[in-house]
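> call design_seq(struct)
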């Protein structure tokens, strides 16, 4: 009896004779540096372009956050919201990511993680 595999995952046994796992690597388009650098980046904000003490409301999948810009160029903010920030708390916002090694420095964008 073979262990069950999640949908969309193929084991070597399920691949054709001419295809091996080394021949096929699935990579999300957003994880390719050329694609990342060519993005228009019009679905978010860069905090270094914001005024000091300007505030943002950011809704994530689970929470609503208030972010007050102290120094956008240095990534210094006050943040309130979610489980971990019940009151305005000083923080450093490095930027947003898809979860890998690419970081959109000092940016907050739809679909990325702060």
């Amino acid at each position: 009896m073979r262990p069950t595999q999640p949908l969309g995952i193929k084991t070597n046994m399920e691949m054709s004779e001419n295809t091996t796992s080394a021949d096929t690597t699935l990579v999300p388009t957003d994880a390719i540096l050329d694609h990342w650098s060519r993005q228009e980046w019009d679905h978010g904000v860069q905090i270094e372009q914001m005024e000091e003490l300007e505030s943002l409301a950011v809704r994530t999948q689970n929470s609503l956050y208030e972010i007050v810009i102290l120094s956008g160029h240095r990534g210094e903010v006050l943040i309130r919201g979610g489980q971990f920030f019940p009151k305005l708390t000083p923080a450093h916002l490095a930027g947003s990511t898809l979860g890998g090694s690419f970081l959109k420095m000092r940016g907050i964008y739809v679909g990325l993680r702060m």
